[in-house]
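Journal club prep — side note

Before the paper discussion, L.F. wants everyone to see what a predicted structure for a comparable chain looks like in token form. Sequence:
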Amino acid sequence: MEEFNGNPGSLVADVDCTADGKSLCEKNSVSGYPTIKYGEPGDLKDYQGGRDFDSLKKFAEESLGPTCGPGNMELCSEDVKKKIEGFMAMSADRLTGKVRNAHRILEEEVPVMKKVLAHMKKTAKGEL
């Protein structure tokens, strides 16, 4: 980890999921140990590669780095830039409300929509 020490674009951290880090691990769906995650803090992904230093270093060099977002607009497509600019023009309260509504749609409405689609496919095949 010494090699990444002081790099403002990198964070290599060790979290004890059995002690003080338990809530952080639960929030990020860590259920087995050791688990390696990477990506944006609010959208961590599971690392599936090799566990030795050379494999991890190669993955970091080839796959990690700045991504499209408010701090790196030059990395965004025009469509995404417009969306980000629209969100940035909103108040924090309004944007929080939009996030809450999007979560509600994903958690409540999408499962019902999937059931309806499955039913429609069965009906179209004459399985009812």
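L.F.'s comment for the group: The helical segments are 22-27, 53-63, 78-88, 92-125. Keep this in mind when we get to the figures.
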